Amino acid sequence: MVPIQTTFGALLLAGFLGACASEDEQGTAWLKSAETSVRAAQASASDDIVIHGEIGALSVQEIRESLEQPGAHEPFIPEAPLGITSDLAQLIPADNPCTPAKVSLGKQLFFDPRLSKDTTISCASCHHPDMGWGDNAAVSSGIAQQKGARSAPTVLNRVLAAVQFWDGRAASLEEQALGPIGNPIEMGFSADEAAEVLNGIEGYRIQFERIFGGPATPDRIAQAIAAFERTIIGGGSPYDYHIEAKYFHDLGWDEEDETPEETAEREAVLALEKQHALSDAARRGMTLFFDKAECSLCHVGENFTDELYYNIGVGFPSDAPDKGREDHTREEKDRGAFRTPTVRNIADSAPYLHDGSAQTLRQVVEHYNQGGNPNPWQSDRIRPLKLTEQEIDDLVAFMEQGLQGTVPRMKPPRLP
Ligand code: HEC
Ligand code: HEC
After folding, report:
1. Which of 52, 101, 226, 275 has the fewest Cβ atoms within 10 angstroms?
2. 126 lines ligand 1 (CB under 6 A)
3. What is the torsional sign of CA 46, 51, 53, 56?
4. Alpha carbon distance 341, 353 (integer Å)
């Protein structure tokens, strides 16, 4: 199984998904026509955020044609933006490769409210591209306005980790995807009921048949959604351009001995760094983040998370705290521990923390600065930081400006 070239994959995706936000593809006729219809749809849409895909707008004929496009079923590796250095080919499970057709199906499902019992809630209700792939609410509301206890994390860059949820209770994106469909206060359905609904819709039936060789089942729904989620990748922040250019700034790079190719490369990298420059405050904040403020003890690596679990004092003291990781491991030492979230594009996803209790990044930094809320289970990595007001502002600037990069933005797709 040889993955096709990423750009080709992206191109196909753009055509398939219609609304994929890539601007630089040169297209075939079918791609162009898909784009035109998207533009028409955008022009007629109001400024209000559209949450779900448009039901019935994707015709059976279009679906049949796209499923027979060359390459539609060829595995591809999603494109990694600057700063994401993992070999994504190693992170895509061999038994669920991304193909343009499958990712397109997953995208439709992600935005389809018919996966919920009362057809009002889709995954995008709580993970919307225009809200940092979260929902900008302290805690999420599911069907019949029922509220959960935790804030919806972004689904950005979840391809980089296997284990999912604040407490790590799902072992894969496939396993995760079935959780909300069956959750009584999220989508309130069961995965079997959802599969039955999808099998009653011709455009979906055709896609499941062609892609999986059979009707919709809970596992196939999960596979398609997970394949789509693995393409939601963000990077390319001023910090990433800074790191890319660092090599040329560091002592030891000798401009005298450059080949013409090296000169061209250096100039290109430095020009990009300039174009995406860190602000002065963000630059100072970056130094604090990795040094005095010790944020990188846990917010580390390409996605600014070690994917480990800590009690940092959120929600304490309390008589009935959210037990967090303890719910999953049944070990008291894990009480109130939650997984370190990414801080990439964090400016998009206020409010913050697992319970949405911080409205601003400044409040989060103040929480750390005071040493969390000491409790018997708090991580010993959390202690008073003695940051000045200026330093707090600088840390916020680093996260707000320095870590703000590109994330996939897209309109909800047309649905069968
Ligand atoms: C009613 C709101 C709601 C809906 C609908 C919803 N989610 Fe979530 N999602 C959440 C919340 C809240 C969490 C965190 C729960 C936890 O960790 O205990 C979460 C967690 C996740 C995570 C884990 C992210 C991480 O950082 O670990 C993924 C992935 C995800 N959801 C995808 C989906 C998909 C796919 C669907 C649709 C099938 C969906 N969600 C529907 C609210 C929602
Ligand atoms: C001991 C590990 C650890 C250290 C050190 C740490 N964090 Fe965190 N961070 C976490 C965990 C765990 C959470 C989620 C906690 C929760 O919600 O209960 C979190 C949450 C956050 C959030 C909210 C993200 C969101 O999606 O809601 C931000 C912002 C943040 N940290 C920034 C920082 C900054 C800035 C520093 C340095 C001053 C720092 N962190 C130091 C582990 C850590």
Report:
1. 275
2. yes
3. negative
4. 9
Write out pLDDT tens, residues 122-150: 999 999 999 999 998 988 888 888 888 89
Q: Which atom of ligand 1 is nearest to the CA of 178?
A: 38
Residue 233: name the closest of 136, 133, 309 by CA: 133
The answer to whether 412 and 57 have CB atoms below 8 angstroms apart is no
Q: pLDDT tens-digit profile of 262-312?
A: 999 999 999 999 999 999 999 999 999 999 999 999 999 999 999 999 999
Interatomic CA distance for residues 117 and 109, integer angstroms: 14
| CB of 113 closer than 8 Å to CB of 219 | no
The contacts of residue 232 (CB under 8 Å, 6+ apart) are: 133, 155, 156, 157, 158, 159, 407, 408
What span, in angstroms and rounded, lies between the C-alpha atoms of 109 and 391? 44
| Structure-block tokens of residue 309 | 């679990």
Nearest CA to ligand 2 atom 43: 298
Question: Ligand 1 in contact with 164 (CB < 6 A)?
Answer: yes
Name which of 124, 125, 108 is nearest 205 in CA terms. Answer: 108
285 CB under 6 A from ligand 1?
no
Which class for 294: exposed (0-12), middle (13-18), buried (19 or more C-beta within 10 A)? middle
